[in-house]
Amino acid sequence: MQLLLTPFTIFKLIILLALQLQAIPVLSNSPCKTFCGNIPINYPFGLDDGCGAPQFRHMLNCSTDLFFQTPSGAYKVQSIDYDKNHMIIYDPSMSTCSILQPHHDFLMTEIQSAIIPPSQDTVFALLNCSIDSPVLNHYKYLCFDFSGHSCDELYGSCNAFRVFHLLTNSSPPCCFTGYNTVKFMSMNILDCTHYTTVFDTYNLKGVSPLDWVYGIKLSFSVPDTGCDSCRKSGGTCGFDTETEGLLCLCSSSVNSTRECAAGSVIAKGLKSYPWTIHQLVLLLGVFLLIMMRLL
Ligand SMILES: *[C@@H]1O[C@H](CO)[C@@H](O)[C@H](O)[C@H]1NC(C)=O
Ligand SMILES: *[C@@H]1O[C@H](CO)[C@@H](O)[C@H](O)[C@H]1NC(C)=O
Ligand SMILES: *[C@@H]1O[C@H](CO)[C@@H](O)[C@H](O)[C@H]1NC(C)=O
Q1: Rounded CA separation 256/261 (Å)
Q2: Is the beta carbon of 63 within 6 A of some atom in ligand 2?
């Protein structure tokens, strides 16, 4: 017993205890979820309300997978590229080369259209249009040449689209266009029964529709709100859920308007976190040892 009570042992125990306590605030530092499955969630996005930029509020949802929510549905997010500011989404009820599905619109809110619209290299192919369709008449100029591809090529090489010319024995018109067309005209107004979308379209000359990548690439802009200084100080950018005023989230118990004050992360983070049994036992041990030494 005498051996255990050397000052050196006590010293070691105190160091051990100090290390334990230091580790806690680091763990509770981020009040925001940083992953949904294997997709990282960083600024400007957020999953918990109050995380990320207020403009992007309520856009993502991590239920079973990561979903991007728009007025026309919940679209599965396949990836987010924070260097290029791209998000790839896939509409499971969209028609592609291999599957034909009932038509529906792709709608975004005004804010979404402004800050996270489909990219320039995302092409919307409007299929099986009636000859009265505005894009074949007054708004003909909205259709562009898509690397020399034609409707016949789509109807011919895709199993899903073959039905369009099988029934009529001719090729119903189609139109390759950009997001702005479907933004301002619903599929009913466009008078086309189906659409499909393809992204990364800059190098598709001579590539068969079977090899295109179907889905939508969204191009987001990151609000310039001084998030960097918050991040550098160890915080996570967020906002007040009532006023939507910007906040630098320093720990689960400290919010600051700009950046986290030096030391606040550790000092305040500690208070909010219940001590584990492990640490209490250690503390009790040290206390007892000191008492026994003194007696
Ligand atoms: C800090 O901000 C977050 C997000 O708005 C909020 O949930 C939390 O309650 C705030 N904490 C404090 C201590 O104000
Ligand atoms: C979350 O995404 C799912 C997609 O499966 C959707 O059904 C649900 O309505 C979404 N919830 C919210 C709160 O947006
Ligand atoms: C193609 O469009 C015509 C109307 O223009 C419609 O009657 C027909 O059902 C459509 N084809 C398919 C496969 O939906």
Answers
A1: 8
A2: yes
| Residues 268-289, mean pLDDT to the nearest whole number | 55
CA of residue 63 to ligand 2 center, whole Å:
7
Q: Are 80 and 277 in contact (CB under 8 A)?
A: no
CA quadruple 231, 234, 236, 241: dihedral, nearest 10? -120
Please work out whether the CB of residue 244 comes within 6 Å of at least one atom of ligand 1: no
CA of 203 to the centre of ligand 1 (A): 47
Cα(118)–Cα(224) distance, integer angstroms: 21
Backbone angles phi, psi at 191, to 5 degrees: 60, 40
**92-136 tens-digit pLDDT:** 888 999 999 987 899 999 999 999 999 999 999 999 999 999 999
Q: Mean of the per-residue pLDDT values for the chain?
A: 84
Q: For the chain, what is the largest distance between any 2 Cα atoms, rounded to a whole number of angstroms? A: 103
Lining residues, ligand 3, CB within 6 Å: 128, 130, 163-164, 172, 193
Which residue puts its alpha carbon closest to atom 11 of ligand 2? 61
User: Is 0.70 surpassed by the pTM of this model?
Assistant: yes
Task: Please say whether the dihedral angle defined by the alpha carbons of residues 108, 111, 114 and 115, taken in this order, is positive or negative.
Answer: negative
